[in-house]
Write a structure and sequence with these properties.
About 40% of the residues lie in helices and about 20% in strands. By secondary structure, the chain is an alpha/beta fold. The strands form 5 sheets. Strands 14-15-16-13-12-17-18 form a 7-stranded mixed beta sheet, sandwiched between helices. It has a 6-stranded mixed beta sheet with strand order 9-8-7-10-11-19, with helices on both faces. Strands 5-6-20 form a 3-stranded antiparallel beta sheet, with no helix packed on it.
Length: about 475
């Protein structure tokens, strides 16, 4: 743990295992609620000086941190691949994206905030200022542990906030080493703190701490509701990026081969363990047979293995047995209700946490595979006749994080982009995330936005200034 500028090894040791074979990758020290309180106290003490420091000073530290992350990217990537089960190329991409968040927000920190309001009252002038909001509790998951934490840390620090980070115990090693890059870059004592341990207890302690003003959480909608409920007791601002149920719409004028390539990325990146993953393929009649045939053929040809193996496999393991059981249940439920398997069954290694990629057609609307976040390498395929039916089905979910549309028609693309009830839309693009673009959902997929200039604003308060002349 990192508390008040000191790396503390004390606490109960917790092993971190490789989901490919169960081997121990390393361990972290689990703390207690007292450690969470101490971390928040440290962040509160550091807030005054950090929040008043020049933007150029904060920006230089973030740039130095980005440089260190890139310098150490090889080791960080291998560590991330082993603890999270990622394919090594995906782990490298995540580490590089993490560095980019620090670089981009370092530059954004130096851009002016606030506004001059045209005056209407004689003898008065009106202005707004943006001020750092205070101590931030940053709570992140295991599926993209480095990049999601970077997407919170970088704008919070750029804005002048101090942070207590609680990272998932399932994949805490690489992200902790990423945060070491911040301290090595010169982040002052207490500005960034890290605590490890059981999520429920540490989260409750942080949200009850009087100095914490913002909680930034990425995770499931169910847990997000609990975080929001606890945050409401002290009026802590919630910034929530929650679950998704992504629709991947293929219209009848789409480039089918490009759509298949996009589908493989949108569904199977990180072995399907992504909030913005495509869960439901919604395909129009005119290209349904061609698209599903090509996609099933490509899925059946996918290789499965450890993410650090050579050659690199197409799919790695999932994070743990809980994920194996959850996805297996969704697939079994759909098959029992009459769904039809489009892809082959295959044998999987006995050790580790593995799932075969699965595509199912004729999935009943009420089956979980067709209406809930899957978070694994399984998806339902639906046939539709026209644009209206495709749009209705895409929006027939309580989630609203991301959706995808494949079409050659600009007019249709715009109509879908405007009508889809999601925070992110990828049009002929299976990888819409970027440091300079806002990420977040609508409906039950969250509140607020991360990334881009709005991601910086989330960590500030607007102060109105009325000046008598």
């Amino acid at each position: 743990m990192l508390i008040d500028g000191e790396w503390r090894p004390d606490g109960s040791p917790h092993p971190v295992t490789d989901p490919a074979d169960g081997g121990v990758v390393g361990e972290v020290s689990f703390g207690t609620t007292a450690d969470a309180d101490a971390a928040a106290d440290s962040a509160a003490r550091a807030f005054g000086e950090w929040s008043e420091s020049p933007a150029r000073y904060r920006a230089d530290i973030l740039l130095a941190a980005a440089a260190r992350i890139r310098e150490r990217s090889a080791g960080l990537s291998v560590l991330l691949a082993r603890e999270a089960g990622k394919r090594l190329p995906e782990a490298r991409a995540e580490v590089n994206a993490s560095a980019e968040y620090f670089r981009w927000f370092a530059e954004e920190a130096r851009r002016p905030g606030g506004a001059v309001i045209p005056h209407e009252a004689p003898g008065k002038r009106h202005f707004t200022l943006r001020r750092p909001a205070g101590v931030v509790a940053s709570l992140t998951p295991w599926n993209f542990p480095c990049s999601i934490q970077a997407r919170k840390l970088a704008p919070a620090l750029a804005a002048g906030c101090t942070v207590v980070a609680r990272v998932s115990e399932k994949a805490p090693l690489a992200v902790t080493e990423m945060i070491r890059c911040l301290t090595d870059a010169g982040v002052p004592r207490g500005v960034v703190n890290v605590v490890h341990g059981p999520a429920a207890g540490l989260t409750s302690a942080l949200l009850a701490h009087p100095a914490v003003r913002i909680v930034s959480f990425t995770g499931s909608t169910e847990v997000g509701r609990l975080v929001m409920e606890q945050a409401s007791r002290r009026i802590v601002r919630p910034l929530l990026e929650l679950g998704g149920d992504g629709a991947f719409v293929v219209l009848d004028d789409a480039d089918v081969e490009a759509a298949v390539e996009g589908a493989l990325i949108a569904k199977f990146r990180n072995t399907g363990q992504s909030c913005i993953a495509a869960n439901r393929f919604i395909v129009q009649d005119g290209v349904y047979d061609e698209f599903t045939g090509r996609l099933a053929e490509r899925v059946d040809a996918m290789s499965i293995g450890s993410g650090t193996a050579e050659p690199v496999p197409d799919l790695g393991p999932v994070i743990d047995r809980t994920r194996v059981d959850a996805v297996t249940h969704l697939v079994g439920e759909a098959l029992a209700a009459g769904a039809r398997r489009l892809t082959r069954e295959r044998e999987l290694p006995a050790a580790g946490h593995w799932l075969a990629p699965v595509l199912l057609a004729d999935v009943p609307a009420a089956a979980g595979l067709g209406c809930r976040e899957v978070f694994g390498p399984a998806a339902a395929v639906f046939r539709v006749s026209d644009d209206a039916e495709a749009l209705r089905l895409a929006n027939a979910t309580e989630m609203g994080l991301a959706a995808y549309v494949w079409t050659r028609d600009v007019g249709r693309a715009w109509r879908f982009a405007e009508a889809l009830e999601t925070g992110v839309v990828g049009v002929n693009d299976a990888l819409p995330s970027a440091s300079f673009a806002p990420m977040g959902g609508v409906k039950q997929s969250g509140l607020g936005r991360e990334g881009a200039d709005v991601g910086l604003e989330e960590f500030t308060d607007v102060r109105y200034l009325a000046l008598g002349m």
